[in-house]
Predict the structure of Endonuclease/exonuclease/phosphatase domain-containing protein.
Amino acid sequence: MDDLTATAVPIRQAAPDLNPWPVTIATYNIHAAVGTDGRFAPERVAGVLQELDADIIALQEVPLGGSRTPNVLTMLQEATGFHAAEGPACIRPERRYGNAVLTRYPILSMRTIDLSFGSREPRGALDADINCHGHMLRVIATHLGLRPAERRDQIRRLLQVFDTEEMPVILMGDINEWFVWGRSLRWLVSHFQAVPAPRTFPSRRPLFALDRIWIRPRNRLVHVQVHDSRLARLASDHLPLIAHIDG
């Protein structure tokens, strides 16, 4: 057995009477639980989640079950004891696949947003309202396309659903924008304001800041960092990105 294979144990649970702030959030493209060694190992992803010890985690490239595909989200939910929501972008009898959210706090409602573009690979976003001991957070987990025109169209559609001031909005996921001054990034910055963007891809030697976290209002974002552990470098081709937000 690989000496980095993790035995997943439940992540700490918040007591019901605690003030949630600060809240730790994270985004993680798990690469279908296939590591940089080419091995399918959901237990390693669960081990990375244990290292993160985040309160709310957005996941991308998550196998969600099917006749030929295991449900990795179920495995991760069992390992963490968290609430889970799924947002499949690809739905076929043999394979369901897409975004997900894991959270120690209850999910009050959720919606899926179709971001598919022409004949390109199906894309989407998972939009969830989370109750952090009476403090509401709206979390959108997404994974955008590989082509610039595709991303621009998807960002336009996403920004239309952000037109609300009812609660803080967090957008996080794999934005797939390689260019610092790409138009889609400029649009997001103009809406959410600039935030730190550490490099997360590829995990063994990060060169690109593909994974991002934004929050509105911006002043709630306290700190952003990459989780770069030995296990994280093995478990996926992306490293997780972590942020701390305060009330």
User: Anything to note?
Assistant: The first helix runs from residue 42 to 52. The first strand starts at residue 23 and ends at 29. The chain has a mean pLDDT of 89.
